[in-house]
Amino acid sequence: MNILLIREDITKLNVDAIVNAANKSLLGGGGVDGAIHRAGGPEILAECKKIGGCETGQAVITTAGNLPSKYVIHTVGPIWNGGTANEEALLKSCYIQSLKLAEENLLSSIAIPNISTGIYRFPKELAAKIAIKSAQSFKSQSITELRFVCFEEENFNLYAELLNQ
After folding, report:
1. How confident is the model at residue 8 (pLDDT cuts 50, 70, 90)?
2. pTM for the whole structure
3. Reading across the β-sheet that carries 109-112, which strands appear in turn?
4. Which of 3.40.50.150, 3.40.220.10, 3.20.20.20, 3.40.50.880 is the CATH number of 2-163?
């Protein structure tokens, strides 16, 4: 699996699936979640309503609606509580479960944003380490390209430094 780093708007990417840093309701919110729902249109919301929610650390897949990607994989990251509520394992699970869904659906390209580093306050450097380690350890038969997509410069620089080590 080829791992790339880009600084881009994830809603503009033409990949098999983009990952959404969703909330438990799956009904849209702020940040990347709101951007994906706005750009993807009502089809995504309709499928999310049928699914009925998602637990922290888990992932579900829907259509991508009006987005250039084929699917959206929604995963619910943990809210940072100082590291005492299993946050690291839950964040790792977000990445692994998202990759498993991509694999199960025989997808070859996936784009993943920074999960839990916005309003969920997960420390950005720790989150980047978990994301990269999770991706590098995942053995895939179908995924040939994983793009880490950073919207902001701070996360982009953290990922760039870690990937170059």
Report:
1. very high
2. 0.97
3. 2-7, 145-150, 109-112, 17-22, 71-76, 59-63
4. 3.40.220.10
